[in-house]
TrEMBL record:
This is Tat pathway signal protein. It holds the Pfam family Glycoamylase. It comes from Sphingomonas taxi. InterPro entries: Glycoamylase-like_cons_dom (IPR019282), TAT_signal (IPR006311), UCP028431 (IPR016883). Residues 211-456 form the Glycoamylase-like domain.
Length: 473
């Protein structure tokens, strides 16, 4: 039997986002501190082990995913550099071991070949290719030179430069290389005539047409670019970024926020940068800060899953979380008297928000990456997902699951299907593991934020963007 696709306007009429988000409590400022269940110690250590076990000791590169054989992700390296001090603080590894692997990583990136040749290079103009060969460290196939993934790498490098503060020669070299690598990027070269930073560049083809505009994870690109002491972004770059905000506001009253459907866009910048109490011109006018914005976005994501306008199985108060993640594959299949469309790896988020997509696939990192924003709803979600069949394993949570996908007669792109509980991914993804680990660290003792508040690059970037107040003074 063939079913007609359900009308999207009908779905949104069933559950308007402003109404669905009405369960958001009226709370401003820092999220309440909530005691974490004892099993979070196990989750934190397993997640940390993804980076510690899988890093190439010769060059510090970390695979994009595991156990599927994989190239290295420079973004995952940024998360790894942040993970190692967490391991030291928790007593899982010695500081000297973390220092040595960090130094090997920074030495690799400092010396990695740069140039505009299509092969044999790791980067160009101080930026790096999104994916690198795990062994050679050179560009993987035709991947792009990525401004945002370079930024994620830089944030990990800047964290290392701030955290390793001892006088011994190895830690001094980490600090020197951190500044050298991050200040080498030619940010004006990556900027278009409107003052916006391009998403990427390919040798022989030029820049990707789409720039970082609107509201999403691109905010960290501008903060790091403005903070550089080498070739920084020009004055006015932050204004070029924020002037594209108007179409991204959703909700009213205590639910009003800058929206971006996948939750990672609200999490990545704030894993490293403490936006509590510091405001730019936009947030001064709005009357709250970007931390509060991400808290509201987290509640809106959960509220959408509770409303569940697409009628997916499994969604509810404690099973929620839409972000970028793996999926079962690209299929159009019958589901509840309609034709449902499913996807492989894709960004996902509530319908009605920028970059919307909902195919029934949920990701533990979506909720857990928001732990520092809203622990009161994230901890129950983590408890519920830990009990989900086959989702919790060697390195903590596998990337994603889809309770509605119970089709056993199709060729999956990834993972496996159980006829009762649905599809579960077979891989752990570095960037999603990193968001979980960083959120737990900031929830426990502000471990990432405390170090990054000492970073001259971050302070300079925020100040040049017009932020003031709070810890900036």
């Amino acid at each position: 039997m063939i079913f007609a696709p359900i009308d999207r306007r009908e779905l949104l009429a069933r559950a308007p986002l402003a109404t669905a988000a009405a369960c958001l409590p009226a709370l401003a400022g820092a999220a309440p501190r909530a005691a974490l269940p004892g099993w979070f110690d196990d989750l934190e250590q397993r997640t940390f082990r993804f980076f510690w076990d899988l890093a190439n000791r010769d060059n510090g590169l970390v695979p994009d995913r595991w156990p599927t054989p994989s190239f290295a992700s420079i973004a995952a390296v940024g998360f790894a550099l942040t993970a190692y001090p967490v391991g030291v603080a928790r007593g899982w590894i010695r500081r000297e071991a973390a220092r040595d692997l960090t130094l090997a990583t920074l030495r690799f990136f400092a010396a990695a070949p740069q140039g505009d040749a299509p092969a044999g290079m790791s980067g160009h103009k101080g930026f790096f290719y999104h994916f690198l060969d795990m062994k050679t460290g050179q560009r993987f196939r035709d991947t792009e030179l990525s401004s945002v993934d370079t930024t994620l790498l830089f944030l990990g490098i800047l964290f290392a430069g701030a955290w390793y503060d001892r006088a011994d020669p190895a830690e001094a070299e980490i600090r020197r290389l951190a500044q050298q690598i991050t200040d080498r990027a030619d940010w004006p070269w990556f900027t278009n005539a409107r003052g916006s930073v391009s998403m990427g560049w390919h040798p022989g083809q030029g820049f990707i047409e789409r720039p970082w505009e609107g509201y999403n994870e691109g905010m960290m690109v501008y903060i790091v670019g403005l903070g550089s002491r080498g070739k920084p972004l020009a004055d006015g770059a932050w204004d070029a970024w924020t002037k594209t905000y108007p179409g991204f506001w959703r909700g009213r009253g205590t639910t009003r926020h800058l929206a971006f459907a996948p939750l990672f866009g609200h999490q990545y910048s704030q894993m490293w940068i403490d936006f509590r109490g510091v405001r730019d011109a936009t947030m001064r006018q709005a009357g709250f800060d970007y931390f509060e914005n991400s808290r509201r976005a987290t509640y809106a994501n959960r509220a959408y899953c509770i409303a569940n306008p697409m009628r997916w199985d499994g969604y509810g108060r404690d099973i929620w979380g839409l972000t970028a993640c793996d999926g079962p594959g690209n299929f159009r299949l019958p589901f509840k008297e309609r034709t449902a469309e499913f996807f492989g790896y894709s960004a996902r988020g509530p319908l009605g928000q920028p970059d919307e997509r909902d195919d029934g696939t949920l990701a533990p990192t979506a909720a857990l990456g928001s732990l520092a924003f809203a622990p009161e709803i994230v901890v129950p979600a983590a408890n519920a997902m830990k009990a989900w069949p086959g989702l919790y394993g060697k390195y903590g949570f596998l990337d994603s699951f889809n309770p509605s996908f119970r089709y056993t007669d199709v060729k999956l792109e990834a993972g496996s299907v159980d006829a009762t509980s649905g599809w579960v991914d077979g891989d752990y993804l570095g960037i999603d593991q990193g968001a979980i680990l960083g959120a737990i660290a900031n929830m426990r003792d502000e471990g990432v934020w405390r170090a990054m508040r000492r970073s001259p690059t971050i302070r300079r970037g925020l100040t040049r963007a017009g932020f003031a107040g709070g810890w900036l003074g």
